[in-house]
C-alpha cells in the first residue's frame, strides 16, 4: 500500500466513526464529540493529529486493524486477506508476460491461494483474534513515546493519544447467552468479552487516553462503534450499555497441533464409553476427533456454571444443544481422558424426554442464515 493510499484509508476510517451518531451510545458520542470539530492533519507517527484550538488539546490518533482470520508467517501475524492480496500480486508479476505458456501453472497457483484463504477462514478461532489483538497492541504500545515526540503537534497544546482500532471478525456461529435469554450473534461482529476488555484495561498505563473500536464483519457491511475513556474503562463500558461476555467456545478446549490441524489420535476409551449412546453422539456431528465431544462437554459445563452465576457467556449452537437437551440429566462430572476436559455423569435418560427437548430446541433455535 502506497503512502497516499494509506493516508486515504486512514481518513476513511476516521470519517466513518462520525457517520452513525443515532446508533451510538451517549458515552461513545461524548468521546467522539471531543474530536468532531477538530482540524485534522495527516502524519506518520501517529497517523492523524486532530487539533482542538479552543481547548488547546491535540489528539494523536493511531489507526490499526485487527483480524480474526490471520496467518502467522516468519514470526509476524497478519490478516489472511492481506496475505492473499500480496500473494496475488506476486502471482501476477510471475505470469503477466507469459500467461499463454504457463496458464496451467497459473491456475494451480491461483487454486492454492484460494484454498489457503478458505482454510484460514474455517480454521479461525477466538484465540486467533486475541493473538492478533495482542500482537497489534504490543506493536503500537512501543511507539507511544515516538507519537508524543512528533513535531507535528502544535506547541503549547496538551497531547492525548487515541487508538482507533478496526476489528474484522466472523462470529456468526456464536450464541449470546445469559440466564434470561439466548440469542444468535447474527451480525457476526465481535462481542465484547472479558478477555478483550482485559487487554485494553492497561492502555492508560501505556499512555493511551481513548480507544475507539470500529467493529466490522467479513460477511456484511454492519459496523458498530464503541468509544472508551481509559481513565476509568470499566465505568466507560457501563456507560456504553454494552453487555460483556465470557467466552466458552469449543475451540477453547479442542487440542490443536502446531500447524492448527485438529488432533485426531485414536483413543479406544472414547469410542467405547457409554456416557452418551451412539445415537446421541450423532447429534453432535462428531467427525472422528476424540477431543471434540469432551470439548463440547467442557464448554457446556462452563456455560452452565456461568448461567448459575447469572453471567453472560458465548457458546456455539452445538454446545447450546448439549446444555438445553441434556443439561437436566447431568448429576456430576468426571475428568475425561485428557487433563482439563470433562465428561458428564447422567442420571437415567428417558428417550421420550430427550426427543421432546430436541423438538423444542429446534423450534427455539433454528439454524440462522448468515446476514448478507
What do these coordinates show?
This protein has 372 residues and is α+β, with helices and mostly antiparallel strands. It has 3 domains: 3-67 and 126-245, no CATH class; 70-123; 250-364, no CATH class. It is 41% helix and 21% strand. The chain has 14 helices and 14 strands. The chain has helices spanning 3-16, 26-36, 80-95, 103-123, 126-141, 144-148, 194-200, 203-206, 233-239, 268-272, 278-282, 292-308, 317-326, 351-364; strands at residues 39-42, 48-52, 57-67, 70-73, 76-79, 158-169, 174-177, 182-184, 210-217, 223-229, 246-247, 313-316, 330-335, 342-346. The chain has a 6-stranded mixed β-sheet. Helix 3 (80-95) packs antiparallel against helix 4 (103-123) and helix 12 (292-308) packs across helix 13 (317-326). It is globular and about 75 Å long. The chain starts with a helix and ends in an 8-residue tail after the last helix. Residues 256-283 have low confidence and may be disordered.
For the largest beta sheet, what order do the strands appear in spatially?
1-2-3-6-9-10
**Overall average residue pLDDT:** 82
Strand content: 15-25%
User: How far apart lie the N and C ends?
Assistant: 28 Å
Low-confidence stretches: 256-283
- Topology as a string of helices (H) and strands (E): HHEEEEEHHHHEEEHHEEHEHHHEHEEH
Q: How many β-strand runs?
A: 14
Gyration radius (Cα, Å) is 24 Å
Helix content: 40-55%
Write a compact overview of the structure shown:
This protein has 372 residues and is of the alpha+beta class. 41% of the residues lie in helices and 21% in strands. A six-stranded mixed beta sheet has the order 1-2-3-6-9-10. A four-stranded mixed beta sheet has the order 8-7-12-11.
